[in-house]
Amino acid sequence: MGGSDGFLQALFARGTRAAGLSVLLLGLALAGCQTPGLPGLHPEPARQPEPQAAPREQPEPVAPGAPESGVTAQKPDAVIPETELSFERPQTEMPLTTVPGAPDGIALLLPLSGQRASVGRAMLDAAQMAVFDIAGEDFNLMVYDTQGTPEGAEDAARLAVADGARIVLGPLYGRSAAAVRPIVAGAGINAVAFSNDRSVAGPPVYLMGLMPQQQIERVIRYAVQKGYRRLGLLLPHGGYGDLVLESARAAAILAGAEITRIAYYDPLASDFTETARSFAEYDSRRESLRMQKDELAGRTDEISRQTLARLEGMDTLGDPPYDAILIPEGGNLLRTLAPLLAFYDVDTRRVKLLGTAQWEDPSLGTEPSLVGGWFAAPPALYRENFALRYEAAFGRRPSGLAALAYDSIALTVSLQRGETGPDFGGGALMADSGFVALNGLFRFVADGTNQRGLAVFEIKDRALEAIDPAPERFDGLTN
Fold first, then answer.
1. Suppose 183 and one of 157, 243, 409, 414 were both cysteines; which one would form an S-S bond, judging by CB atoms 3.0 to 4.6 Å apart?
2. Do residues 163 and 107 lie in contact, with contact meaning Cβ atoms separated by under 8 Å?
3. What span, in angstroms and rounded, lies between the C-alpha atoms of 306 and 424?
4. What residue spans define the domains of the chain?
5. Residue 97 forms beta bridges with which residues?
């Protein structure tokens, strides 16, 4: 074989079907590059995950799930968007053999052709890294191309079932996960999809994606503990904004906070000036300043003159009606909104900015108005080591979706090595003690979603710092 691209071309020459890949642990450049401290994703009845440290990554912010029409600037399927990857694949010999229908086949459904092919291939690279890192020679990975559509996912799932798959990893998108549900249900097997669209969750479809609701609850709870109890919400129009509003309201009730201001904006707009100005209540506060200055101007006492002199250096009078603002955005949109708030006299040294895992980008610290902001995301220790190895192999930083693909392989390795033999059933997936992987502690729950141990990070000058570590076990965990 000449390289991984040639391997993929041969593998998918017959459409969506790919025969099982039984990966031999021979001669790969990544061999021997174990992730230090990664517990192999075994259920944790006795041992607990190692303590986490801070630096994705969405990296890019973590939290997968996107529409079949493509990854856009905003959150289809009510999810946090992923940045599409594009990179040169290394010309590494892939020691892979074909074992269709072998015992304990693990089916991996990814968009390996079509508009989202670069995303799927990046995830496949990460999955192969995991196989070489932690799987044994008996691990039978069967890869199928969904073409990035629900119809392609349905065809791929049928082929996987026909080939004897014991569990399905994927597909990537929410609508595709819904399409495979009747197929895996009819076969009596489970699917672990990479989406975080909870509308498609429910056995036998479990979601691996990072749930935005948990991130919102975690960061609000922490902010309230630190004394920030009046919350403003700056939300995008659409399903994602509605999801954030619902999650923030529930979190505020639980934490004892009050939502005092809500504003919406068009995420596809090019100018957010009026949104920021209105949300900051700039005009009313500026009018309050003018009225106060007019009142003092007619006085001759020393205190009034000193007060007026101080007011001359101010743009507005009074504080906005919140002491923390939740902005569930990342990337360029966040870089636009935050400084606009500061421009309209929202002092981000006093008003705490709050976010989600989309904020997991150290370069955000170059924007002064974002420095000091808090966000919730998975712990970064294991993912950072993985990202360095992935970048060395493929020439690009991995997305959060790539890390999830790695974790899905580690999950199935753990299930394959159960004390009573391979068990890919719902009971095994929902082990109370959970699992530990690149994205930290997690477990699946009865409604088909997942629960994760999240850390709270603070944006520093060109750096991120974990200021409240992720829990190491699920005892008493509420996020």
1. 157
2. yes
3. 74
4. 4-210+379-448, 212-281+320-377
5. 22
Please check whether residue 199 is in contact with residue 209, taking contact to mean a CB–CB distance below 8 angstroms: no
Burial class of residue 14, CB neighbours in 10 A (0-12, 13-18, 19+): exposed
Q: Please, what sign has the CA dihedral across residues 223, 224, 229, 233?
A: positive
**What whole-number distance in Å separates Cα of residue 222 and Cα of residue 196?**
23
Query: Residue 301: what pLDDT?
Result: 84
Tell me which residue has tokens 């991130």.
215
Question: In this predicted structure, which of 187-196, 235-244, 334-343, 379-388 has the lowest mean pLDDT?
Answer: 379-388
CATH number for the domain formed by residue range(s) 4-210+379-448? 3.40.50.2300
Neighbours of 465 (CB within 10 A): 14
Cα–Cα dist 449/416, whole Å = 21
How far is it, in rounded angstroms, from Cα 363 to Cα 424? 40
C-beta of residue 236 within 8 angstroms of C-beta of residue 329: yes
Half-sphere exposure of 115 (CA within 13 A, CB side): 9
Nearest to 339 by CA among 356, 322, 327: 327
pLDDT for 398 equals 93
Q: Are 408 and 106 in contact (CB under 8 A)?
A: no
**pTM reported for the whole predicted model:** 0.78
Phi first, then psi: give them for residue 433, nearest 5 degrees.
Answer: -75, -15
In sequence order, the β-bridge partners of residue 106 are 141, 167
User: How far is residue 434's CA from residue 211's CA, in Å, rounded to a whole number?
Assistant: 16
CATH number for the segment(s) 212-281+320-377: 3.40.50.2300
Please state whether beta strands 440-444 and 450-452 pair in parallel, antiparallel, or not at all (unpaired): antiparallel
Is 212-281+320-377 the same fold as 4-210+379-448?
A: yes
Q: Are 251 and 259 in contact (CB under 8 A)?
A: no
Q: How many residues are listed for the chain in this entry?
A: 479
Q: Which residue has the tokens 């996912």?
A: 153
Q: Peptide bond before 378: cis, by omega within 30 degrees of 0?
A: no
pLDDT one-digit tens code per residue, 49-100: 333 333 333 333 333 333 333 322 233 333 333 322 222 223 333 333 335 5
Could you identify the residue written with the tokens 């399409």? 179
